[in-house]
């Protein structure tokens, strides 16, 4: 496994890998890798392409009230996991490489970025879109892999690639969960023992909400009931909504491609999740 920390070395290794393997697959990450990230890496490996995993904690996607320094980091552990998985190249740029002092360009994606996380975390998706565009330009992958756990992020990046005619395919990979249903996240390590016991109720609330709507309960009533249950379990709910999956616009009733999306604080940890909403019969 190669490790690149400069653009020159990245381009050299990418050129060699493309010649040898014919295609490149990129897995963008911020490190602190877990089984969810490794599912993305495995999907990229299974495609037959040479796999490039980037590790970069992107300051541009952290808001003024979010602690960039608290984001977990484990370079040695991340590299060991990627080496064992069979990753071909790890791209580990520094902030000066990604955001040179003279740089003035950022990317704003309207549409799917405007609500939910876009309201709760102003500027977050500008950071996501900008860093992804830079990574796509640096690596020039044929495909890039993103987890469905960050559903809105997946839609924002897909929209950007479509609108800008970027020459790559965005591939979504299903959410990886603990046995109790909790979606894997680098932030889960900050949950206390008691919070770890309660956290799976987030996914349970989504599942119960989808089942209620499938059985004929109006969407507004099902969402209100799920929100009430989460509040009773000491979650502070930012949003719980039924949305059109690609556009992220709110829906009054379940239709094709509908998703249930949620963000809630449990103690000091902010958790997000989403599931497909079954279409009414």
3D architecture notes:
By secondary structure, this protein is of the alpha/beta class. The chain has two domains: 2-173, 3-Layer(aba) Sandwich (Rossmann fold), CATH 3.40.50; 186-272, 2-Layer Sandwich (Pantoate--beta-alanine Ligase, Chain: A,domain 2), CATH 3.30.1300. The chain is 39% helix and 20% strand. The chain has ten helices and nine strands. The protein has helices at residues 7-21, 35-46, 75-85, 95-98, 117-120, 124-139, 151-163, 193-198, 201-214, 219-232, and strands at 2-4, 24-29, 50-55, 89-91, 143-147, 169-173, 235-244, 258-266, 269-276. The strands form two sheets. The chain has a six-stranded parallel sheet, sandwiched between helices. A three-stranded antiparallel sheet has the order 7-8-9, with helices on one face. Helix 3 links the parallel strand 3 (50-55) and strand 4. Helix 6 crosses helix 7 and helix 9 (201-214) packs antiparallel against helix 10.
Portion in beta strands: 15-25%
Based on the structure given, which CATH architecture of the largest domain is correct?
3-Layer(aba) Sandwich
Order of helices and strands: EHEHEHEHHHEHEHHHEEE
**Count of helices?**
10
- Please tell me the overall pLDDT: 97
Question: What's the oligomerization state?
Answer: single chain
Features:
single chain, 281 residues, alpha/beta, Rossmann fold, Pantoate--beta-alanine Ligase, Chain: A,domain 2, six-stranded parallel beta sheet, three-stranded antiparallel beta sheet, 10 helices, 9 strands, globular
């Amino acid at each position: 496994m190669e490790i690149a920390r400069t653009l020159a070395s990245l381009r050299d290794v990418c050129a060699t890998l493309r010649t040898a393997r014919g295609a490149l697959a990129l897995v963008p990450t911020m490190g602190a890798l877990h089984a969810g990230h490794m599912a993305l890496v495995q999907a990229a490996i299974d495609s037959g392409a040479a796999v490039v995993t980037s590790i970069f904690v992107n300051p541009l996607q952290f808001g003024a009230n979010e602690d960039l320094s608290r984001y977990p980091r484990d370079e040695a552990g991340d590299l060991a996991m990627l080496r064992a998985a069979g990753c071909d190249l790890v791209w580990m740029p520094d902030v000066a490489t990604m955001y040179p002092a003279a740089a003035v360009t950022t990317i704003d994606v309207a549409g799917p970025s405007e609500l939910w996380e876009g309201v709760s975390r102003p500027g977050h998706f500008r950071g996501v879109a900008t860093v992804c565009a830079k990574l796509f330009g640096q690596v020039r992958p044929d495909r890039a892999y993103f987890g469905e756990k960050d559903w809105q992020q997946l839609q924002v990046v897909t929209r950007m690639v479509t609108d800008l005619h970027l020459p790559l395919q965005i591939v979504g990979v299903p959410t990886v969960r603990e046995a109790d249903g909790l979606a894997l996240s680098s932030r889960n390590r900050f949950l206390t023992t008691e919070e770890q016991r309660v956290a799976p109720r987030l996914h349970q609330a989504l599942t119960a909400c989808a089942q209620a709507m499938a059985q004929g309960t109006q969407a507004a009533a099902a969402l209100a009931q799920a929100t009430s249950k989460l509040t009773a379990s000491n979650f502070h709910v930012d949003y719980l909504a039924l949305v059109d999956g690609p556009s992220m616009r709110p829906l009054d009733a379940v239709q094709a491609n509908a998703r249930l999306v949620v963000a809630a604080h449990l103690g000091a940890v902010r958790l997000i999740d989403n599931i497909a909403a079954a279409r009414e019969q």
